[in-house]
Amino acid sequence: MAEAKRKYTGGKARSARRVAGVAAPEQPSPLGGILVPVLLFLVLASSIAVVQSSHKSRRQFSELQELRREAMALEEEWGRLLLEQSTWASPDRVQRLAEDELQMRPPDMREAEMVRGYGKAG
């Protein structure tokens, strides 16, 4: 069976290689000498690109995690600052400071004057 395959595959190409019973030397295909090194180079280049891409991805993920930690810390500080602001601006504290440190007092009803003609009430 192997002999039959050889005879079948030989066909016209076999007769073209033989001239008067002498076998002609095999000629390599024109792309065979260039194609293998080019493909090898492309495989190596793509493997290097995969390694660099993986490294870059890991580095960026690490940077993302660091930025998320920083964002959480900033949000905590923002919450503390809002609490501090509400404490400093509480009406009771402002009232107490106005009376104690600035000696301010609410006006008597006799001293208050109503101004008409301004705004919506006017």
From TrEMBL:
HAMAP family: FtsL. It comes from the Bacteria. It is found in: Cell inner membrane; Cell membrane. It is a single-pass type II membrane protein. This is Cell division protein FtsL. Residues 57-84 form a coiled coil. Keywords: Cell cycle, Cell division, Cell inner membrane, Cell membrane, Coiled coil, Membrane, Transmembrane, Transmembrane helix. Residues 99-114 have a biased composition (Basic and acidic residues). Part of a complex composed of FtsB, FtsL and FtsQ. Belongs to the FtsL family. Essential cell division protein. May link together the upstream cell division proteins, which are predominantly cytoplasmic, with the downstream cell division proteins, which are predominantly periplasmic. The chain crosses the membrane at residues 31-51. The keyword rRNA processing does not apply. Residues 1-26, 99-122 are annotated as: Disordered. GO terms for cellular component: cell division site; plasma membrane. One of its GO terms (biological process) is FtsZ-dependent cytokinesis. InterPro entries: Cell_div_FtsL. Residues 10-24 have a biased composition (Low complexity). The keyword rRNA-binding does not apply.
